[in-house]
Amino acid sequence: MDRYTKPGAGPAAIGGVTRLEPRYDNDTDFAAMAKFHALADGGRPGAMTAAQDDLDHRLGLIVRAHADCDIDGIVLSARRIRHLALQLGFVELRRATDNAIACCRDGDATALAAVIARIDRLGTMALAQVDLVTQSVT
Hints:
Elements (H helix, E strand, L loop, with lengths): L1 E4 L12 E4 L8 H10 L7 H21 L3 H18 L2 H16 L2 H29 L1
Antiparallel strand pairs: 1-2
Helix pairs in contact: 2-3, 2-5, 3-4, 4-5
C-alpha cells in the first residue's frame, strides 16, 4: 500500500486526511503470454481476443456467484480464471484465485469477499494488458 497524504495536510496538520492506495507490481510473465499467442490455435489472430473474452466472462461469473452465495460457482469460475491466468502469464491473478478457492474450502466469508474484490481488480488490469498486447500485435 502506498500512503498518500492530501496536499496541505502535512503531519503537523490537525485532521489531515491520509488515504491508502493499493499498489500492484506488474508481475506479468510476458514470455508465457507470447507463448500463448504463438501456440493458441496455431497463432491465429483471434486467439488473444477469445482468451480476453473468456476472462471477462469468467470475471463476471465469479462476481455474480459471490453475490448469489454460490460457492460451487465461485470455485468453478476461480479454476477457469486460474487456468487462463497461467496461460496468459498473470501470476498475481493466479495467486488470488488460489486464495479464493482456499477461502471457499475454509468457509471464511470475510476473506472471500476481499479476495473476490481483488480478483475483480486484477482481472480488470489483466484485460487491459491483453488489450494492449492485442493492439500492438495486430
